[in-house]
């Protein structure tokens, strides 16, 4: 009769198994909390981004107003209503020109005219951000901009200015 071999103790004692079960449960709880956090972030983030965009636009508009007064108003007039240079506070100009076009006009100037390049890249004095700030200021004039069909003629065109409906 063969001898009965002793059986080996179980590989994992019960205490170790309970410990692993606790870690597994805590891991699942943590994952559920993490997923809930991502959902809460996704719900809240668009509002935070919109608020930040509004704050940045307001800041850019305020700084752009100051930059325009310092650098542009001597030719384009206070409030961009014209002077020796075109009227920029005009429905016709603002509705037919994109922000990129305004940026490029300011940055590179207009060859053959008195409009110099203002961008540092063209040996001007303004950074790209400052140019965007001036563009934001000009764009803020659009809702109340008067109709000035001859906006390219500068202050000569303001005598025929009519207000927008």
Could you explain the architecture of this structure?
The longest helix has 58 residues, at 14-71. It is rod-shaped and about 120 Å long. Helices cover 55% and strands 0% of the residues. The chain has a single domain (14-158), classed as Cytochrome Bc1 Complex, Chain D, domain 2. With 165 residues, it is mainly alpha-helical. Helix 1 packs across helix 5 and helix 4 crosses helix 5.
Radius of gyration, in angstroms, nearest whole number? 33 Å
Helix content: 55-70%
- Please tell me what the overall shape is: rod-shaped
Question: What amount of the residues lies in strands?
Answer: under 5%
Number of DSSP helices? 5
What is the CATH fold-level name?
Answer: Cytochrome Bc1 Complex, Chain D, domain 2
* CATH C-level label: Mainly Alpha
Relevant CATH superfamily: Cytochrome c-like domain
Structural features:
165 residues; mainly alpha; Cytochrome Bc1 Complex, Chain D, domain 2; 5 helices; 55% helix; rod-shaped
Summarize the structure.
This protein is an all-alpha fold and 165 residues long.
Task: Give the topology, please.
Elements: H1 14-71, H2 73-76, H3 91-96, H4 99-108, H5 128-140
